[in-house]
From TrEMBL:
Gene Ontology BP, a term: carbohydrate catabolic process
Family membership: Belongs to the glycosyl hydrolase 1 family.
A Pfam family recorded for this sequence: Glyco_hydro_1
Upper lineage: Bacteria, Bacillati, Bacillota, Bacilli, Bacillales
Keyword Hydrolase in annotation: yes
Protein name from the UniProt record: 6-phospho-beta-glucosidase
Annotated GO MF terms: beta-glucosidase activity
One Gene Ontology cellular component annotation held by this UniProt entry: cytosol
Superkingdom of the organism of origin: Bacteria
Keyword Hydrolase set for record: yes
Keywords, comma-separated and alphabetical: Glycosidase, Hydrolase
Species this chain originates from: Peribacillus muralis
Length: 485
C-alpha cells in the first residue's frame, strides 16, 4: 500500500488570535465607552468557584459604577496593546505570521453602543493597527463582537435580550465595513456565539438576575444575535463584494463515556446542542432537534416577521472554531470530573489535562474537523487553539516552554491529518500568541503566548515583551508550512 503523506496547502494561513478586551487596555482613552469585559473582576484562584467565574450581578455593576468596589478589573488594562501595537505586530511579523485575528472593540467605535455617530478616535486607532499589519503583509481576521458588548446596551436593553440591539449592531458593522473595506476581507460576526447560553453576561451583556426566566433570556438573546449576524453578512456582501463572513463556535466535542446506548444517546444530544449554533449559521434555519430542547426547558423563541427568511437568505461563508478539549457524556452524573471552568466534564482516563483541568485531546481535533466538514461542506478556519500554562522565567530571561511546543505540535499534526482526510482548512491561528488576560479567570499567570509579557495577576510588572522558546519553534513551523514541527 502506498504511504500517504498529508500536507497543508500553499495558501494556508498561519498566525495567532486575540481579543480587544484581553489585550488593548486604554479602557478610558480615545473616547472609548465601558463594555461587559470592563466589569469582570479578578478573583484569586483559591477564592474562585463555578458561581463567580464570569457572571456579573446587578449589585456588582452598581458597586463598580459607584466606586464602592475594591475589585481589580484586569481587562481594563489588558497588556496595553493600545500603546504597544507597533512593537507587538513587529514581533508577530518576526515569527512569520501571515494572518492575525483581532477584534474591534465595539465600545471604542460607539461608546454606548447605541450612538448615532461613531467615535473618530476609535476608528483611527484601528486604521493605524491595520496599516501596521499591511506593512508586514499580515492578513487581518476581524471579529466584530468578542465579549465586548457596550455597557450602554446592557443598561438600556439588558444587552442582547433587547431586539433593538440588532439594529445597533448592524449600524456598527456597516460603519466598520465602510471604513475598512480596502483593509479587511475576512470577518467573524460573534466570537464563540454559544457563550451567551453558558455565560450570558460575557456573551451578550445580559445580567441574569434581571430576568425571570434566565434560559428564555439566553436563547432569545441568541436569536437576536443570529439575526444580527445574518443582516451583517448581507451588509458585508453589499459593501465589500469579495468580503467573507464567518461564524464562530466554541466546539465542545462529546464522546460517550461507555458503549452503553444511554451514554451514546446522551453524547449525541450534547453534540447536537453544541452544533445547533453552526447549523443555524450555515444552513440558515433552526434544526428540528431543538424543538424538544426548547419545550423541555420552557423556552419560546419570539421571532419577528421575516426573521426566518433573513437567516435562510444570508448564511455565513465559512466556519471558524475554537478547540481546546473534548468531553465525556454519561447518562449517569456520577464519576470523577475535570476542573475545567465552564466546560466541566467527566474525566477521560485516556487523556492528560492542563494545569487548569482542560483535557488535552489532539486526535479529537481531527475528529472534530472531519465531522464538521462532513456536516457542512464549507471551509473551516481554526482560529483558536492553545495551552494555558504557568511559565517560569529563568535567571538569564529565557523561558523554556517545551510543554506548549508539545501541545501545539500534536494539534498541528492532527490538523494536517484532517487536511489529508479532505477537510478544506483555511488556516491555523494559535490562541494568545502574546500573553494576555485570561478570558475566563482574568489571570495573567495562565499564559498562552509565544511572547512573554512582564505582568502578574495583581497588575504589577514592566510590560516588557520577550521571546519564549516556542517563539522560535513556531517561526520554523510557519517557514516550513507545518513540515518542521
Amino acid at each position: 500500500m502506498t504511504q500517504f503523506e498529508a500536507k497543508f496547502p500553499k495558501n494556508f494561513y498561519w498566525g495567532g488570535a486575540t481579543a480587544a478586551n484581553q489585550i488593548e487596555g486604554g479602557f478610558d482613552e480615545g473616547g472609548k465607552g465601558l463594555s461587559a469585559a470592563d466589569f469582570v473582576e479578578y478573583i484569586p484562584k483559591d477564592q474562585r468557584t463555578k458561581d463567580n467565574a464570569m457572571e456579573i450581578t446587578s449589585e456588582q455593576i452598581r458597586k463598580a459604577l459607584s466606586g464602592e468596589s475594591t475589585a481589580r478589573y484586569p481587562k481594563r488594562e489588558g497588556i496595553d496593546f493600545y500603546h504597544h501595537y507597533k512593537e507587538d505586530i513587529a514581533l508577530l511579523a518576526e515569527m512569520g505570521f501571515t494572518a492575525f485575528r483581532l477584534s474591534i472593540h465595539w465600545a471604542r467605535i460607539f461608546p454606548n453602543g447605541y450612538d448615532e455617530e461613531p467615535n473618530e478616535a476609535g476608528l483611527q486607532f484601528y486604521d493605524n493597527v491595520f496599516a501596521e499589519l499591511k506593512k508586514y503583509n499580515i492578513e487581518p481576521i476581524v471579529t466584530l463582537s468578542h465579549y465586548e458588548t457596550p455597557y450602554g446596551l446592557t443598561e438600556k436593553y439588558n444587552g442582547w435580550v433587547g431586539r433593538e440591539v440588532i439594529d445597533h449592531f448592524v449600524h456598527y458593522a456597516e460603519t466598520v465595513f465602510t471604513r475598512y473595506k480596502d483593509k479587511v476581507q475576512y470577518w467573524i460576526s460573534f466570537n464563540e456565539i454559544n457563550m451567551i447560553t453558558i455565560s450570558p453576561f460575557t456573551g451578550g451583556g445580559v445580567i441574569s438576575d434581571k430576568e425571570a426566566n434566565s434560559m428564555q433570556a439566553r436563547y432569545q438573546g441568541l436569536h437576536h444575535q443570529f439575526v444580527a449576524s445574518s443582516l451583517a453578512t448581507k451588509k458585508l456582501h453589499e459593501i465589500i463584494p469579495d468580503g467573507k463572513m464567518g461564524c464562530m463556535l466554541a466546539r465542545m466535542s462529546h464522546y460517550p463515556n461507555t458503549p452503553n446506548p444511554a451514554d451514546v444517546i446522551k453524547a449525541q444530544k450534547d453534540n447536537q446542542e453544541n452544533l445547533f449554533f453552526t447549523d443555524v449559521h450555515v444552513r440558515g434555519e433552526y434544526p428540528k432537534y431543538m424543538d424538544r430542547f426548547f419545550i423541555e426547558n420552557n423556552i419560546e423563541i419570539i421571532k419577528a416577521t421575516g426573521d426566518d427568511e433573513i437567516l435562510m437568505q444570508h448564511p455565513v461563508d465559512y466556519i471558524t472554531i475554537s478547540y481546546y478539549m473534548s468531553m465525556l457524556s454519561s447518562a449517569s452524573p456520577e464519576g470523577e470530573r475535570t476542573e475545567g471552568n465552564l466546560m466541566n466534564s467527566l474525566k477521560n482516563p485516556y487523556l492528560e489535562a492542563s494545569e487548569w483541568g482542560w483535557q488535552i485531546d489532539p486526535i479529537g481535533l481531527r475528529v472534530v474537523l472531519n465531522e464538521m466538514y462532513d456536516r457542512y461542506q464549507v471551509p473551516i478556519f481554526m482560529v483558536e487553539n492553545g495551552l494555558g500554562a504557568y511559565d517560569k522565567v529563568e535567571e538569564d530571561g529565557s523561558i523554556h516552554d517545551h510543554y506548549r511546543i508539545d501541545y501545539l505540535r500534536k494539534h498541528i499534526e492532527q490538523m494536517k491529518e484532517a487536511v489529508g482526510d479532505g477537510v478544506e482548512l483555511m488556516g491555523y491561528l494559535a490562541w494568545g500568541p502574546i500573553d494576555l488576560v485570561s478570558m475566563s479567570t482574568s489571570e495573567m499567570s495562565k499564559r498562552y503566548g509565544f511572547i512573554y509579557v512582564d505582568k502578574d495577576d495583581e497588575g504589577n510588572g514592566s510590560l516588557e515583551r520577550s521571546r519564549k522558546d516556542s517563539f522560535y519553534w513556531y517561526k520554523k513551523a510557519i517557514e516550513s508550512n507545518g513540515e518542521v514541527l
